[in-house]
Amino acid sequence: MEIILSAAIGVLTASGVYLLLRPRTYQVIIGLSLLSYAVNLFIFSMGRLRVNAPPILDPGGVGDLSRYTDPVPQALVLTAIVIGFAMTALFLVVLLASRGFTGTDHVDGREQRSD
Amino acid sequence: MTDWLHHLMILPILLPLMVGAAMIPIDERNRMAKGVMGFVSTLALFVLSMVLMRASASTEGFLAGTSVYQLGNWPAPFGIVLVLDRLSALMLCLTSGLALAAQVYSIARWHTAGHHFHSLFQLLIAGLNGAFLTGDLFNLFVFFEIMLAASYGLLLHGSGPLRVKAGLHYVAINLAASSLFLIGVSLIYGATGTLNMADLAVELASISPENRQMVEVGAGVLGVAFLVKAGMWPLSFWLPTAYSAATPPVAAVFAVLTKVGIYVILRLSLLVFGANAGVSAGFGQTLLVVGGMLTIAFGAIGVLASQAMARLAAYSVLVSSGTLMAAIGLGHSSMIAGALFYLVSSTLTISAFFLLIELVERGRDAGADVLAVTMEAYGDADEDEEVDEAGAAIPGTMAVLGLCFCLCALLLAGLPPLSGFVAKFAILSGLFGLADPEAASAISAADWTYVTLLILSGLSAMIAMNRVGIRTFWASIENTEPRVFVIEIAPVVVLLGACIFLSLQAGPTMRYMQATADSLLDPSIYTQRVLRAPRVGGQ
């Protein structure tokens, strides 16, 4: 499980960084989204991976810590997802404004000359 | 009564947050009403931060020294705490002072250039104040995002191709930096199991070697996120474009935005990687020194190379950041007080300069064009009336503007008798150990390089300001006098007046800064206060 998760984070980060460095605004926004997915998984994995362990206590009675997983990273991920989502939406608006002003989707607002 | 006063600590966050939210449903045509609301709120904040600064500087009474506010009444490592000490009070004061000046300035005309200016402005202040007050790493992230989200909106205020392009780059780089922030925070949590800064400082002293390595990696990644914000070379190429494209009141507040990065680096490097950190003490200092010096050099060259005044000001922001980073990195405890003085003085100067630039350039063609375009894009029928309401134009405009420009030049270059000189002198005297002859023996090559760069950066600022000043005031081709309103020049005069006040009251100010530096250099006070704070209602 650890290998699958770390491979997923690695692939997402690599593709995210690659796309982030591309010249088209659409590629940049997809790159940023992939990067934020990778980061969210990474935060989640920092609570250590546990199978069949709930993050909240059973009702009635103090439980045994070994049966539960760390709830803090899950709360952090939730916050990070919400903030990341809002920021992506905001970036989309700026992207569209830039497209409207310059008529191109190049990040510098003009096509690179091929000389 | 004392319990009630304790809640004053959270007001710098709550007040602008609520005022900003309350403004959103108000119709855009009532800009003046929004402006007045914003003004009252920032004025209240300014008074409040003065009260908090006095309180934290006192030794007894309410909120004396380092005080802790437990959100939800949860004790420190479990709940989120706000911490008010001399440093955060100082930063609150600086922020609200700048915000007040920019707010007044914007009411004259710039708030008409787009929508929701005043709401975004209040939210930006809420985010800034939160970042200065919080004692929790993840909460710091949240306040950073509030601040950044508002700053994206404010940078785009006024619209136009130039601002949208700068905004696109600014948003992209900050989103990437936020990802790094999260990676750093989660690595630190994964290794230590805490997000509380004070608890982290305590944990780090007794941590296993492999976990220590993970914390250091996390801190490094986290540091990169702050250095992007602070504009360290080579992470700073976005900064000059973004800052010079922003509208003047926005650029004036953005001057303090880079200082948030500096603040966090100063706070964390002295608290977590301070003298008590064992093996990790002084982590990342070499990088700060080298990066800071390169930033000074890059900024100084940029200052010399810039033709437009706004770019000159933006590069001055880099010089100021670089000076502070290297001063923190050199790690002489005697330099911290001078660096804090420099932080306040340079931020006030650069803000005043950003506000002044637009007034000076208004009579010239380039500035007028930009303004005309934005007015065209967003202009309403009632534009002219509002401009007339703002107040009468002042006589002898050029004389006043010229005087303000001279003061800015003296402050930026660090020439006597103003506070720019006092600040640099304080840093250098700390470095050479004038106050403490025993420390003077250990001046290294890095120190000499720093001294050279600091003085050369002042020279480059002087040359650039001279050139621009001569071109603008003496050899101007068009002889049109810009129409400047009293409420536009007043904020500039007040900010510069604050610098003059700092120069006159340099003694008491330096004593405050020295006490601040002393409390930073002894992190045990901070950690004890945070971790042993009693809950409200006993226990």
Question: What does it look like?
Answer:
The complex is a heterodimer of chains A (115) and B (539). By secondary structure, chain A is mainly α. Chain A has helices at residues 2-20, 25-45, 71-102. Chain A has one domain: Orthogonal Bundle (Helix Hairpins), CATH 1.10.287. In chain A, 63% of the residues lie in helices and 0% in strands. The longest helix of chain A has 32 residues, at 71-102. Chain A is elongated. By secondary structure, chain B is mainly alpha-helical. Chain B has one domain (2-381, 388-531). Chain B is built from 22 helices and two strands. Chain B is globular. Chains A and B meet through helix 2 and helix 3 of A and helix 6 and helix 7 of B.
Q: What is the fold's blueprint, element by element?
A:
The complex is a heterodimer of chains A (115) and B (539).
Chain A: H1 2-20, H2 25-45, H3 71-102
Helix pairs in contact in A: 1-2, 2-3
Chain B: H1 2-6, H2 11-23, H3 31-57, E1 67-70, E2 81-84, H4 86-108, H5 117-133, H6 137-155, H7 161-192, H8 197-205, H9 209-230, H10 238-245, H11 248-271, H12 285-305, H13 309-330, H14 336-361, H15 365-378, H16 383-389, H17 397-413, H18 419-432, H19 445-474, H20 486-504, H21 506-521, H22 523-531
Antiparallel strand pairs in B: 1-2
